[in-house]
Structure formats: C-alpha cells, structure tokens
C-alpha cells in the first residue's frame, strides 16, 4: 500500500525580525515608485502552504506606501510630507 500524507497549513508565517524601522526622506522622488525597505516572513509549511503574501492592513490611510505582494518590498506611492502627517 502506498500512502501519501499531504501537508496541513499548521504553521503561521513568522517575520525574521520582531520589528522593522525605515526612514524616508521627503526629497525622495516618488514618481518612480522607489523602494525604501523590505520585510521578510517565513512559513515553515511545505508546498503552496509555505507561500507568504504581504499586504498593508493599517496606517496607510493616505495611500503613500505600497508593498510587493510576493516580495515584501516597500515602495513610495505618493509624496510624503512630515508637516502634513
């Protein structure tokens, strides 16, 4: 008899660091969607259960930032102004 056990999605993704801090200059040209940082999480499951997808779920009310869904790369989507926000 041949028995194959499929992997359950039993592990949560974990970020490599407990927190990330990035500094952005107001003079950074946002038109080219420049990258200013990257976050990374790892899921110890196997196969498609190990795939990690990123999204911004809070704190981006003005839409100034974007995140690469598969890469975790953070990009500037609109100009930033420290005095305005």
What report would you give on this structure?
This protein has strands at 14-15, 35-38, 41-42, 65-67, 73-76. The protein is an all-beta fold. The protein has a domain at 28-85: Sandwich (Immunoglobulin-like), CATH 2.60.40. The strands form 2 sheets. It has a 3-stranded antiparallel beta sheet, with no helix packed on it. A hairpin with a 5-residue loop joins strand 4 and strand 5. The model has no long low-confidence stretch (mean pLDDT 87).
What can be said about this structure in brief?
With 85 residues, this protein is an all-beta fold. It has no helices and five strands. A hairpin with a 5-residue loop joins strand 4 and strand 5 (73-76).
Summarize the helices and strands and which ones pair or pack.
Elements: E1 14-15, E2 35-38, E3 41-42, E4 65-67, E5 73-76
Antiparallel strand pairs: 1-3, 2-5, 4-5
């Amino acid at each position: 008899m041949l028995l194959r056990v499929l992997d359950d999605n039993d592990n949560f993704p974990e970020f490599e660091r407990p927190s990330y801090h990035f500094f952005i200059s107001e003079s950074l040209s946002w038109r080219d969607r420049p990258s200013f940082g990257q976050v990374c999480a790892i899921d110890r499951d196997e196969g498609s259960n190990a795939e990690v997808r990123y999204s911004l779920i809070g704190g981006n009310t003005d839409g100034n930032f974007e995140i690469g869904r598969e890469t975790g790369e953070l990009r500037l989507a609109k100009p930033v102004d420290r005095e305005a926000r």
